[in-house]
Amino acid sequence: MDAKNPEIDPDAVWHRSGGGTGGVEVAYLSSGYVGLRDAKNPGGPTLIFTPAEWTAFVAGARDGEFNRPSA
Asked: Which residue ranges does the record assign to the DUF397 domain (predicted)?
């Protein structure tokens, strides 16, 4: 498997954030990578993170790094 283009397991278990139909879904893939996709469009594009990238992404989200700037 090419590390730049890991395949998503067809039997991957996707976990939805929050309640309702919105938000994102996350799957921990057998390759060790982490998949992230739009819960409203599961057939659309999927972001793939290495374990280190996922850890950094989650830490940034917790620290508010991705919050929209106030107007």
From this structure: 16-62
Task: List Cβ neighbours of 9 (8 Å cut-off, separation of 6 or more).
Answer: 27, 29, 30, 31
Cβ neighbours of 38 (radius 10 Å): 15
CA 47 to each of CA 1, 44, 70, 71: distance values in angstroms, whole numbers, following the listed order: 16, 10, 27, 29
Give pLDDT tens digits for 10-28: 889 999 987 777 789 999 9
Are the beta carbons of 29 and 35 closer than 8 angstroms?
A: yes
- Is there a domain that residue 46 lies in? yes
List the domain range (segments joined by +) for residue 54. 15-62
pLDDT of residue 71: 59
Domain count, the chain: 1
